[in-house]
Amino acid sequence: MLKILKKRYTYDHLAKLTNLPITVLNRYVKGHVLPSAERANDLLKVFKKKFDLKKELNDRIKWNKDGFLNNTDFVCDTLLLKLIANTIAIKYQNQKITKILTVAADGIPLSTYVAGELGVNLALAKKNREAGVAKFYEEDYSHRTSGVIQTLYIPKSELTSKDFVLIVDDVIRSGVTQSALVKLVNKSGGTLVGIFAIVAIGKIWQKEIKSVTELTPDVLVNVKEPEPS
């Protein structure tokens, strides 16, 4: 947490916020020394007061001239992803989850951290069949903009009727990818517990998701579709 705050504040500023010497803060940030339980709790209170996760994400959202989201600033920041994963784990801590499901793309880093936080395995739906796997569940889907039909594959051994599944992804835009994941869960006979995404763009995805499940996805940040340039 201190490492994230250090990206926004100087050591002088952090020292004033925490009433701790700069030398001590430096050791904490670099991981050379761990704070006591009592001090860690005090630091957590400062962190919650000064750090707004949604604002942080909004500040990192960037678009290119063609209206495509550049997600690099949040899907590649391991500290931020760990914080998001912890947030997800707290939200779902009282629900039975046995598997985290995502597409083998930019959602993998966050999904891996979430699986670690919850102590469960990760299931990856891929766009190609693995040569060493004999049996798959598969689901076709198509993005309206391209019209190209793609297929997601997942080994039958990775998703079973005994699984309670949380779908995790970085971005929802059209919703067709997440819809395909829901259909894979249904084909396996597993139970869908929830859908989570860091960012949702526009509102088109809502209708798509409603067509396959009554569950409403949990989203940290909702943003409007960018205006055409």
Task: Provide key terms for this protein.
5-stranded parallel beta sheet, Rossmann fold, alpha/beta, 41% helix, 2 domains, 229 residues, two-stranded antiparallel sheet
Descriptive account of the structure:
With 229 residues, the protein is α/β, with parallel strands linked by helices. The chain has two domains: 2-51, no CATH class; 57-223, Rossmann fold. Helices cover 41% and strands 24% of the residues. The protein has helices spanning 2-6, 11-18, 22-30, 37-50, 53-60, 72-75, 78-91, 108-118, 176-188, 204-210, and strands at 62-63, 69-70, 99-103, 121-125, 136-142, 149-155, 164-172, 191-201, 218-223. The strands form three sheets. It has a five-stranded parallel sheet, sandwiched between helices. Helix 7 (78-91) packs across helix 8. The two termini are 38 Å apart. The model has no long low-confidence stretch (mean pLDDT 89).
